[in-house]
Design a protein that fits this description.
This protein has a single domain, classed as Vaccinia Virus protein VP39 (Rossmann fold), CATH 3.40.50. The chain is built from eight helices and seven strands. Helix 2 packs antiparallel against helix 6 and helix 7 crosses helix 8.
Length: 212
């Protein structure tokens, strides 16, 4: 186990077995990155901090806000699998990975195979998912750098208006986005500064309802 991986294992209480799977996932991502653009080229040399640690940070936040030990998660616009795959590995959670790009979805299928996580890949636009047919139903809705909060809540509403909790990774303008979102949505929201990204934040949203 490399020094970065060992540091993350201690920080987020990730088992040795789970860290081995994360290392396999990171190695696979770098191999595929040479063929398709999965992550920003400027972040290739810092995959552990910029992507894996950034994803693992929401694990304790999910645990603090959901009393289900291994919740079902839906990760909207997951891209290369962040944050869904690291969270599924570290928490033993079932994850629905939603990604409309077919090349990225092919990568996700291989990542799910080698890490042996419990996951279903939905290769479609978010708005085309039959939320009633989704099994198991999500306890947590998450996303990373997908859309402004007001639009993101619109994507997540089919699950959140039925009791799912939103755990969203946002940037430095989270307060502005939250103010804009409250024009259209009633919610209970709590923002926590990101321990991994200066200026970043994680926002937890509960009891979402559209304003009439």
């Amino acid at each position: 186990m490399g020094s970065e991986a060992a540091s993350l294992a201690r920080k987020y209480n990730v088992s040795r077995e789970s860290m081995a799977k994360l290392e396999e996932y990171a190695a696979l991502l770098l191999r595929w990155q040479a063929r398709i653009n999965l992550i920003g080229p400027a972040t290739v040399g810092d995959v552990w901090q910029r992507h894996i640690a950034d994803s693992l940070q929401i694990g304790p936040i999910i645990s603090d806000n959901c009393d289900i030990e291994k919740p079902t998660i839906i990760d909207l616009g997951t891209g290369a699998g962040f944050p869904g795959i690291p969270i599924a590995i570290s928490m033993g959670a079932f994850v629905h990975l939603v990604e409309s790009n077919h090349k990225k979805a092919a990568f996700l299928r291989e990542a799910v195979r080698i890490t042996e996580i419990n996951a279903e890949i939905h290769t479609c636009r978010i708005e085309n998912i039959d939320s009633e047919a989704l099994r198991p139903k999500p306890d947590i809705v998450t996303s990373r750098a997908l859309a402004p909060l007001d639009k993101l809540l619109g994507f997540a509403a089919p699950w959140m208006e039925n009791g799912s909790i939103g755990v969203f990774m946002k940037g430095q303008h989270v307060d502005r986005e939250l103010t804009e979102a409250t024009k259209c949505w009633n919610m209970d929201a709590k923002t926590t500064p990101s321990p991994e990204k200066t200026g970043g934040a994680v926002i937890v949203v509960k009891n979402l309802q559209a304003k009439s």
